[in-house]
# Entry
Amino acid sequence: MKTYYYEKTTDDVVNSAQKDFSLPDDYAIFPTSLSGRIWNKIIRALACGFGFIYSRLFLHTHIVGKDKLKKAADQGYFVYGNHTQPMGDVFTPLTVVSCQKMYAIADQANWGIPFIGKYLVRYGGLPVGKDIKQSIKLLKAVKKVIRQKNGVVLIYPEAHVWPYYTRIRPFTDTSMHFPVALNAPSFTWTSTYTRSKFFKRPKITVYIDGPFYPDKNLNKKQAQAKLHEQIWKSLVSRAKLSNYNYYHYQKK
# Structure
């Protein structure tokens, strides 16, 4: 069994040569040219097809609760998930939510990943800002996505991927800023792991729960804290359904 060593639950346990990659300030999040918009649709369609094959046939992923998303079908919404699959967390959601309108908030290092960074994240990623100017750019981009019907913003609040980790790592309520500011619903996406009868890798079952709405009777800070508690409890509750550790995590 492979072992990952860590000091804090906020550690990045997966080594990557692209950790220091940064985007230029004039980076365009959404394609503006006709050719760019066409490529956007083509890349997304291809990613959806690959995602279905990869998540269903290779990862053996089963989705539970997809029908709950219909409760927010007439508006944009957020999805919060535990980050446990380097590729699965990119492709599997494309097989469940609106393929052409899904975006994921991601660290800029992801844009430096060969192939995926150039052809997938480029069209479906919302880069985390490294300064005030870039952060404002991100906020405007998120607002644009959420204002679309069926626009989806996927957030992994744990930030770093811990492959096949079966618990939920602590995260702050800062990532709840977006749904509170935009008064938009949120759902949780919890990947759980159980022993497979036929394969060495565990079976992945993703549970979708929600929607969770910001409490408009509270101030911004209080609303973020309350939404954080709801998202946290939902993820933790579902994560308890995991019963198989494919990798071992050891604190140093």
The beta strands are 3-6, 61-64, 77-81, 102-106, 125-127, 152-155, 186-194, 203-212, 248-251. The mean pLDDT is 92.
